């Protein structure tokens, strides 16, 4: 047995004391050092050991302290700390190394908490388990809204691992299998089970949001994870998990799964489906898993220009599902919204440009002497021969007239209008059954 005092001095900005503790009065145990972090102050003393009981900190007696009280005393200890410690052989069983399973840093809601945003007040009791396994050597990871992927953050040259990312994107578990065949089988099974939970998630989100809906839409058509490619020299480092939500009218992008109602109303990006188009879908560069990497890209016309997003998917079925959802979402948004109007200047006159899904293009001028605006001209979509823009503010429409292009000053970037015209045309063609 040894009892000794030791003074530690450190600067908080370089990591602090560097110990973890366990025990406490409520556990009928002394305050024990359970872990010493390499390179930090406690480790540098070479005088402290895992299993040492902390009797006092700067003279504050911890012999009868609870775990929380000890934590607070250590937090308030300052940059120079006097520790009185005692090695206790009888405490060794309490600080033996945990199972690697228990060291997984995964903190999320238990599977029996179905409501998003609900935080349980107490930990669930261990569920019954038919196999003869120690419950302490088991970690339960709810699959609901986990992102199941391959080779996103960790290289996999042997092609035998896959990754689980928590809904809040704070935790990742990499699972390595015996061989590529087993890895693919496990990946397919886990991903399928995760996908099967999606309808339940959509129902829960709709219930949570209530009548307000999301981004002005009452319906959530699809929700799921993709790997978005961002700018960067290293290909793997430029991939990040991205949650995509498709509503009746919009494509919403989140960097993690919202838990509370308020977070749903603050996506990282909101793009109108009516001004969005699918521009690429299929195989890209080589991928160790599938022989080639599958991806798709979207482009959205905004007042700042065109915004492009490139997403990687994990399988052909996922690629097919996402591209179908986006294309059909654009068409349904066109049928739902029907008409958009914007102010413009036409032949030096301040007017309104109206584009209607059924009726086509109109230029209207407000007439103070009458209640309804004066129609200057109107053309159907069938008359449109060509459309273009200058990328700054001018829209050019060619309806085959003798005067050539009609020039319309939109006062801002014309890209949203150009993309909306494309969506209306695409939806009308699809309605005729001309698209596969």
Written account of the structure:
The protein is an alpha+beta fold. The protein folds into three domains: 3-95, PDZ domain (Pdz3 Domain), CATH 2.30.42; 198-336, Pleckstrin-homology domain (PH domain)/Phosphotyrosine-binding domain (PTB) (PH-domain like), CATH 2.30.29.30; 339-431, Pleckstrin-homology domain (PH domain)/Phosphotyrosine-binding domain (PTB) (PH-domain like, Roll), CATH 2.30.29.30. It is 20% helix and 33% strand. The chain has seven helices and 23 strands. The strands form six sheets. Strands 13-12-11-10-16-15-14 form a seven-stranded antiparallel sheet. The protein has a four-stranded antiparallel sheet with strand order 1-6-4-5. Strands 17-18-19-20 form a four-stranded antiparallel sheet, with no helix packed on it. A hairpin with a 3-residue loop joins strand 18 and strand 19. Helix 6 crosses helix 7 (415-431). The chain is elongated. The termini are far apart.
